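Assemble and predict.
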Amino acid sequence: MKRTINHTGRRKLERREVNVRLEERPNQVPTFNVDFFLETKNLPSDAVIVIEAYNRNTLQRFSFGTVGKIEKPDSRILDKVDPTGAPLFRVRIIDETEKVGRLIASVEGLKPESDETEDQRSSIITLACRPLGSQTWIVNIPADAKPELVINNSIPDAMHQLKNNPLFQSLILPSAFRQVLMHYLWEGEFDEGTVQDQWLHFAKHLAGEKPHTEDVSELMTWADMVVERFSERFELCEILKLKMEEAA
Amino acid sequence: MIARKLNKKGLRVFELFIEDLRQGLKPNTPTYLLDNTDSSEAIPLEITLNSNEFTTRYELGEHLVSAIDGQDMQPVMGDTGFWSWLALYWFDQLCPLKADGSRKPSMAYNYVLSNNYNHRPRHAIYTTWQLVGRYGGHSRFLLCKELPVRGELIEQMMARQYLLSCEGVMEAAASLYWDGEIGSYKKGSAARKSAGCVARFVGWLQQLELTYDLFSLKHDDIMELMPVEFDRFKFPGGNKT
């Protein structure tokens, strides 16, 4: 059995003790909000709480008062953090009674909570809104996380449009679906239960078994069929036409 | 010249140019991409640059920080098109022509800002701006080499990128390793294993980080906590008084 020894006496905060939410608005720098549910039993009430937002090699630190008196800073604008990716957060609780601040509890890599429902959490793609310059949308495919469909946050009400507007859905989703699928097809074999495996499972469910070949044209034909079935299943073209007729 | 950003097409041409150079070809630097509306676009900031010859990366950083003149950089922070445009603008200095007309570029991510977490800090201009903008003269020890050279010290400090965000750490490192008289870092700083070298400093800070809040440590706190192995850089003449 693997054992670890905590020489530092530092407590690892549980993720449920801190709830971070990102607040993104069109054409504005995102801000964040935090709710604390700290188990304060072993934390001195005068210990200082700081939160660091970080993305890639940029970082911004905010002071949140003390364990006994949490005070949110007036400005929680993430204007020093690289906006080209979703920020993560770390929380540090520091004992400042001595000359040098001693770290007594911390947690790293907190993802901001989204408005996703349980159903959406189990989905195979995540949605995000970020600055994209002149591009309307892109797909990010990280190696070890769900693919992400990002829509330009300068589009008014972008996330709502993507979730509810058939025009957005019918024009973006098939192409985004194809991009992710092709990416995973080129990658080859995957372990069971990985995001890639879930995608291929879903694709098989729509269009049957993937051809056992490395022939690019055969794989592309299969991917086309998957996207076609996906579009059929969600009646993307029909719903779009209906909405356009209603609007006319 | 007013700074702009490369668009998708501009970036692709710039990348292909670097690829060609790395294959030993001798294409001309595609500076036409810089102001051609087909390959670049305006940015929401006004940054006027000059094409002076810089002797060190630090000098380039000083010029860039002064040209930015306190404008809010958030709209272009991490923007691949913008930082790659800057690298193209200064490419002839970052990757000078050799006598035989060839160039020896480093990996493309040194010039085209990468999305990869490990490669992004290796961008010649982005990291220079971050360091000079945040720490001014205290970053000189990391950027004192000529433009084509990233330098051993910055490579070692980047092993733990969080350190580059800690002001006290950077100030302490500067006072340990910078030698103002020779205008470079002190002899022995860039060693890999010997006592007190930057690699050992980084290793020691990683231990310190388990106990202390590195971000809030001041220069003097770090100097006081420092073990004796760093004395050879702290008191280079052996004089502790």
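Chain A touches chain B through 29 residues (CB under 8 Å).
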